[in-house]
Amino acid sequence: MAKLRILLPLLLLLVLASAWWRARLGEPLTPVGQPTDSNAVNISAAAEKSVPEQPQPKEVQVEKTKLPEDPSPDPEPESKSVSANQPGLTQQALGAPAEVFYTEGTKTRDGTGKYYMGREIAQVMGHQAINWLERDNREDEEAPSRAIAALDLEPTDVIADIGAGSGYYTFRIAPLVPRGKVMAVDIQPEMIAFLETKEKRLGLDNVEAHLGDIDDTRLAPESIDAALMVDAYHEFSHPREMMQSLFRALKPGGRIILLEYRAEDPTVPIKPLHKMTEAQARKEMETVGLQWQVTHSFLPWQHLMVFVKP
Predict the structure, then answer these.
(1) In the beta sheet, which residues pair with residue 276?
(2) pLDDT tens digit string along 103-156?
């Protein structure tokens, strides 16, 4: 009995030490009557078997429509490509970026410093020069009556006098078109007022003074049979646009009649920038779609050049 009393405390101490050591190692203490880890696994497996398996919903396969990797945008409405050099069309009408027709360069005494197709544009002769336009010896110097006779007009023709100024040519042409009309076009309101006053004084009913713009004659499309420019074209600040405007205003087969002092002749007593060579004039007219027809050289100082709208 004495030995037993000694051994029991030792056994109890060993059990407590063992439990303490297992707790330090992290092993769970299984109380009496509780299942061990292996038993728990077996019970869980049995429980799973005892529960009827729930039917799983079938996965619906949705077929995806494959899009193009780089879808193209909706096509824009078809538009016609129009060349900036198409006859009779301005850049504004084309709706396109303005093409550069003009360059800036050295400004000479009588020039503007603005160049078109290699030619410096001359300064404008203002309404203050009406007396010079109406001078008494103009017939002797330029023979305008011979120029008018060469216009070859029909009585029913509508002719535009572009840069009409004082109307020197306008009122001399009017009797040649009794059933037609002379459109006296100028960009200076002072000139228009002068023309209207003179028209009333002469009692003419087939002359119409018409105010234009620097880049547009403002004449209706296909409304004229001919257009006359006498010593005026070389002063146009926008020659390309003005000629495109005139191209539109001409009827098919209509004519441009251009009088310019001869730059080829150094004896013509006119400032150089107020003259033009035939070659330069043809180049500038043809670029807007006009066709050269003839150049007359019977006038004392001027070319008389005729161009036709096809």
Answers:
(1) 262
(2) 999 999 999 999 999 999 999 987 777 888 889 999 999 999 999 999 999 999
Q: In DSSP terms, which residues pair with 8 in a beta bridge? A: none
In a domain, 64, yes or no: no
Contact 217/161 with Cβ under 8 angstroms? no
Q: What is the CATH number of the domain that holds 273?
A: 3.40.50.150
Looking at the domain assignment, is residue 3 inside a domain? no
Query: Residue 260 is encoded by which pair of tokens?
Result: 């310019």
| Averaged pLDDT, 27-56 | 42
pLDDT tens digit sequence for 261-283: 999 999 999 999 999 999 999 99
Q: What is the pTM of this model?
A: 0.69
User: What are the tokens at 144?
Assistant: 């305008």
Question: Count of domains in the chain?
Answer: 1
Nearest Cα to 308, choosing from 261, 251, 262, 260?
251
**Does a structural domain hold residue 245?**
yes
Residue 21 has pLDDT above 70, yes or no: no
